Amino acid sequence: MTEVETVGAGAGSVLGTRNSDRLREFVGKYGLLIVYAAAFVFFASKRSDSFLRVDTWTRTILSPTGFTPLLVLALGLTVVLAMGDFDLSFGNMVGLAGGTAGALMINYDINWVAAIFIAFLIGVTVGLANGYFVAYLNASSFVITLAAGTILFGIETLWTKNRSISGLEVQSFLDLDETKVIQNMRLPFFIAIAFFLLVWLMLDRTELGRYM
Description:
single chain, mainly alpha, 2 domains, two-stranded antiparallel sheet, 10 helices, 2% strand, transport, transmembrane helix, ABC transporter permease, cell membrane
């Protein structure tokens, strides 16, 4: 092989590596958006009569039991994923916190503010415990949160006796869901938007967020 052929082969190899790196970077950055766009096009083509209606999207986005709580939960998980870790205890932690708040209000007549504060403390405690094991003991976030999720599920089962909690009649708490701020936009929607702005500011505009 001549010197020219060797240089040409080396340049081609470098170019191929760069293209591969760029493709990986592009997929890592925009892959999820591409999947969402493909899903949108698919459902729009299959259910164009209902999927693309304005009232369908309005009900979905403004629903206090749909988009709003999912956005708040997703924001919390986004911070964990931004650090390159997993949290497999997330769902069970939400279940335990929510079940605890409901049980305290219904079965023990505890004020809804106190019940939600206790549920919040449960989430904070679980998060701090997981973070301690992962950050300070260098344990695998996958293993730690998987174990934590199993423990939390067991605690929730014992606490609620594996029964659905129903019969919430605390009107002041229920009124939060019905409070309309602007036309049909209810208070939970604006709470979710406030959380979104706080998380965005932390991740994008603070030194802490940029170095996570």
